[in-house]
Amino acid sequence: MAEGARRERVLAVALEAFGRYGFRKTSMEDVARAAGISRQGLYLQFASKEALFRAAVGQELDAALAEASRSLDADGAGLSERVVRALDAWLGRYVGSMLASDIANMLEDPAAELGDVVEVAIAAFDTRLAGAIAAATAEDDRERLGVTPAEIAAVLHTVGQGAKYLSCSREEFVTRAAAATHLVLAGFGSPREAAHG
Q: How many CB atoms lie under 10 A from the CB of residue 182?
């Protein structure tokens, strides 16, 4: 197994362990055992549990952002469909899974010392979403409605967060996100809807 793939696997195993047991209760020994490597080998890659946790969360956020970006860039799909796919990639990925609440709690745990890792990823998602909205909506419509692409993106992100907490399954999340996205984007003309920016 290549070094990069091995690191990705260790980080995925670590994220699952942190999600299941919480930051405080997960030890480097737990992660090493689950990853099938020695504790010393894990410490050679990550100097501390905090460094391991930040790297694991960072990898997961990078993967979610990449998937959301691919969704926003999809050819042949209208803006509403691309936005729903992006929200699903960003927020819906754990809805209904056994790790959903554990990961949400873990990300909000002040002891986790994530610093700005989460805030930077959220800002990147919002920027990508606003860019897709700007490219697919008419400036005249935005001016008429008195909103900017960034404001529309913020509303859609907030709606997606609400759908995440109200949904019991990923399918339910997608249904809620689709309905809300349709309502948020309903004031925009359709000529550019099918066109990809």
A: 12
**93-103 residue pLDDT tens:** 888 765 555 56
Reading phi first (left if > 0) and then psi (alpha if -120 to 50, else beta), residue 115 is in left
- pTM for the model stands at 0.84
Cβ atoms of 94 and 100 within 8 Å: the answer is yes
- DSSP string over 137-165: S-HHHHHHHT--HHHHHHHHHHHHHHHHH
Rounded distance between C-alpha atoms, residue 84 and residue 65, angstroms: 14
**Helical ranges in the chain per DSSP H:** 3-21, 28-35, 39-45, 49-72, 79-87, 100-108, 117-136, 139-145, 149-166, 170-185
Nearest residue to 94 via CA among 15, 4, 181:
15
